[in-house]
Amino acid sequence: MRPAHLALAVLVAAVWGVNFTVIEIGLAHFPPLLFSALRFFAAALPTVFFVGRPKVAFRWVLAVGLVLGVAKFGLLFVGMDAGMPAGLSSLVLQIQAVFTAAVAFVALGERPSRLRVVGMAVALAGIGVAAMDEGASGPLGAFALVIGAAACWGVSNVLTRKAAPPDALNFMVWVSTVPVLPLLALSLLLEGPGRDYDALRALDWQGAGTVVYVAWVTTVFGFGAWGWLLRRHPASTVAPFSLLVPVFGMSSAALFLGESVSGLRWCAAALLVGGVGLASVPRRRREAVHPVDGPAPEPALDRS
Predict the structure, then answer these.
(1) Could you tell me which residues come within 8 angstroms of residue 119 by beta carbon, excluding any fewer than 6 positions away?
(2) Cα–Cα dist 106/108, whole Å
(3) How far is Cα of residue 119 from the mean position of the Cα atoms in its chain?
(4) 145 versus 237: which is more confidently predicted?
(5) Separation between Cα atoms, residue 10 and residue 7, nearest integer Å
(6) 250, 242, 294: which is closest to 89 by C-alpha?
(7) pLDDT of residue 287
(8) What is the CB neighbour count within 10 angstroms for residue 27?
(9) 122 with 274: CB under 8 angstroms?
(10) Cα-only R_g, the chain
């Protein structure tokens, strides 16, 4: 990989990692479901008019949009709003790789290798350590919501694999059109029109900046750059860079939000990232690691 391409891969990982800190800042301005709806609205418009028609059947766009956009991001934003730290969220979401393998085994009959099973066991041990750390210092309910988000991400990864979209950016932009109305409806129902109206009326440059970052920088730039790299290099070369996401996530949360990183959390990070790394070692043909806030792992897509 050329130095410029190497730098771009690290930059995308940094963008996705810092995204969790930006989400935390944005949640001080918006209710979580409204914030998630605004993220997808801004990512879809006006980009959807420039990427062309969907290159897969719309049923796949709808399915991934509901599972990834509504369920995964809804649970993530609500969990972080309920007290799940940004840095820990960036780490815990890596467990999606285990859920992806489990769902692929049940739905597609994909049998994991022994090395992948060992890697998944190590990653699960890391989640157990992270749960111990969070149980001693924060709400376990919020932790469970982020685990649920990772599970939904795993399901969406398998749906994306089945869809096999040839253009990651085109697919992600169209997927972004699906969650907007369901998330807005859920926000009005659960968060209330008064709270939504107050948040929009009080919109300032910082709040608007968080929406622009999570929509345009994370989604449009991140997915576009990652897909560009995967068209020029093997997935097994590009995918490991996604393991840097929780490193940037935890570091940026400590730097900008003052989040402390305990010894248990560093232990959890080592186990989880190491386990996901083992589970992602390619055989002759192996899918890409799914980044924490990037596109789904799919060789054909592939890869966000």
Answers:
(1) 274, 275, 276, 277, 278, 279, 280, 281
(2) 6
(3) 20
(4) 145
(5) 5
(6) 250
(7) 45
(8) 18
(9) yes
(10) 18
Q: What is the residue whose two structure tokens read 């085994």?
A: 105
**Two tokens at 46?**
């006006």
* pLDDT at site 117: 87
Give the separation between CA 242 and CA 52, rounded to whole angstroms.
Answer: 28
CA pair distance 64, 176, nearest whole angstrom? 9
Return the amino acid letter for 294: G
Tokens of 278: 């083992």
Q: How far apart are CA 28 and CA 26, in angstroms?
A: 5
Cα–Cα distance, 9 to 77 (Å, whole number): 26
What one-letter code names the amino acid at 205?
W
- Report helix, strand and coil shares of the chain as percent, to nearest 5: 75, 0, 25
75-106 residue pLDDT tens: 999 999 999 999 989 988 988 888 888 898 88
Task: Provide the Cα torsion 250, 256, 258, 263; round to 10°.
Answer: 20
Query: C-alpha angle with apex 257: 132 to 15, nearest 5 degrees?
Result: 95
Whole-angstrom distance, CA of residue 226 vs CA of residue 244: 14
What is the identity of the amino acid at 302?
D
Per the document, the length of the chain is: 304
Q: Which of 163, 291, 170, 303 is nearest to 235 (CA)?
A: 303
Q: What does the pLDDT read at residue 53?
A: 93
Q: Distance between CA atoms of 272 and 266, rounded to whole angstroms? A: 10
Q: What is the mean pLDDT of the chain?
A: 87
Percent of the chain with pLDDT over 90: 51
Share of the chain above pLDDT 70, in %: 90
The closest of 174, 179, 256 to 210, measured between CA atoms, is 256
Phi and psi torsions of 92, nearest 5°: -65, -35
Q: Is the pLDDT of residue 299 over 50?
A: no
Supply the pTM of this predicted model.
Answer: 0.87
Contact 104, 158 (CB under 8 A): yes
